[in-house]
Amino acid sequence: MSIKANNPAYKSWVEVPSDSDFPIQNIPFGIISTGDDSPRVATRIGDTVIDLKVIFEFGYLEGLGFNVEDFASATLNKMMRHGKEGTRILRDRISVLFQESNDELKNNKSHLEKLLLDIDDVELLMPISIGDYTDFYSSEQHAFNVGCLFRDPNNALLPNWKHIPVGYHGRASSIIASGIDFHRPKGQKKPPTAEIPVFGESSLLDFELETAFFTYEGKPLGDHITTEEADEYIFGMALLNDWSARDIQGWEYVPLGPFLGKNFASHISCWIVTLDALEPFRVSGPNQDPVVLPYLEYTGDKHIDINLEVLIKPEDGQENSVAKSNYKHMYWNMNQQLAHHTVNGCNMRLGDCYGSGTISGPQEGQFGSMLEISWKGTKPFKMNDGTERKFINDNDTVIMRGFSEKNGVRIGFGEVKAKVLPTK
Ligand code: MN
């Protein structure tokens, strides 16, 4: 099915800066607040935010099957109940309304005054109420690097890695919106030279460059979603910084995996870019060898070309680009992750969140965590103010940005950023 709103020829009567992540072909969804009004659903073209509650009340979304409650809401969950078909129709309608050639809305000054807002005048809130959070481990280079650092290069990948999209169940309560600063975590750790564990603040605080995807309502318990069906269950994606306290993680993770080293905070970018908007940027994935079991086989291009970057900004300092990677480097795609996750009958629910795992490219400069960039602290990163980073310092802000670009259309996520405050 062709997605009308993706037409690269479309231009909007709303001004779009040339390097914007948000042309008329994007139409992401988010939750805004302006202080005096209650939170509501919005989209964005260029630096202009479009209030979908108001646009609905003016009657511009009539006949699409939506209700005012879908937009007069503090989360996108109600709107997402309309499923892939519903959100596709909604995106198409918004696309038509804001096209250069359409004057249904563009000359109605009194309406525009009420429904258009400047990005600087709104607060972006956590867009989705997340029920369950699963974090995968699906980048081969990342798994290989970590295997080299903690074991040896000859058996860096564990025997299951190329047969299973490895993952763990995380915690949803501490997934928070970009811009919310947080305190360095404390916990139990056992330094390599110590005989017994100690308690204290994490001294190896790290970021993980990831993307996240979010599902519509899945199937009932006991059923599974195939790789072929998976696209229909995926609403959209965001950038995810899956913060990790490496010292806490290193002591606690055997035998049941990540726990307190991971669940103190994970940040997501605030605009959810629909999978529909990302369809034009599909690319083929790596050759999977050994051959996967039939339930993990897939056809067509299921990977996506998304340029990713991580920057560290010290207090009162400049941004330093520390890594450039790409989502296309993933070994396992979202379809395989979802098929694997449900193959035992596990039920996916509306608003569930799935992390990709740290996305590292094959070369130095493309690694998605400080653990890999500084090679476990042995190769400190040189900042442009002369200081060095092995991991993240107090008052550093970590920023991640991402966008796809093809045929003159750039579809991006904006950014996810957060500052590390000293331990509480
Ligand atoms: Mn992670």
SSE topology sketch:
Layout: E1 30-33, E2 40-45, E3 48-51, H1 52-57, H2 68-71, H3 77-80, H4 83-97, H5 109-115, E4 116-118, E5 123-125, E6 133-136, H6 140-150, E7 167-169, E8 175-177, E9 182-183, E10 186-189, E11 198-201, E12 205-206, E13 209-215, H7 230-233, E14 234-241, E15 244-245, H8 246-252, E16 266-268, E17 273-274, H9 275-278, E18 282-283, E19 303-304, E20 307-313, E21 320-326, H10 334-342, E22 353-355, H11 370-373, E23 381-382, E24 388-389, E25 397-406, E26 409-421
Parallel strand pairs: 6-22, 8-16, 9-26
Antiparallel strand pairs: 1-2, 1-5, 2-3, 3-4, 6-7, 10-11, 12-15, 13-14, 13-22, 14-16, 14-17, 18-19, 20-21, 20-25, 23-24, 25-26
Bound molecules: manganese (II) ion.
Manganese (II) ion (MN) is lined by residues 135, 208, 210, 242, 355, 357-358.
Overview of the molecule:
This protein has 424 residues and is of the alpha+beta class. The protein contains 11 helices and 26 strands. The longest helix is centred in the first third of the chain and has 15 residues, at 83-97. It is globular and about 70 Å long. The mean pLDDT is 97. Residues 135, 208, 210, 242, 355, 357-358 line the site of manganese (II) ion.
Provide a quick synopsis of the model.
18% of the residues lie in helices and 26% in strands.
Fraction in helix: 10-25%
- The CATH topology of the largest domain corresponds to Fumarylacetoacetate hydrolase, domain 2
Structural class of the helices, strands and pairings? alpha+beta
Rounded mean pLDDT is 97
Low-confidence stretches: none
Hetero compounds: manganese (II) ion
Reported for the largest beta sheet, the result is: 8 strands, mixed
User: Could you name the CATH class of the largest domain?
Assistant: Alpha Beta
Termini gap:
52 Å
Radius of gyration: 22 Å
At the fourth CATH level, what is the homologous superfamily of the largest domain?
Fumarylacetoacetase-like, C-terminal domain
So how many helices? Answer: 11
Supply the number of structural domains: 2
**What is the level-2 CATH architecture name of the largest domain?**
Alpha-Beta Complex
User: How many individual β-strands?
Assistant: 26
Strand-residue fraction? Answer: 25-35%
Shape type: globular
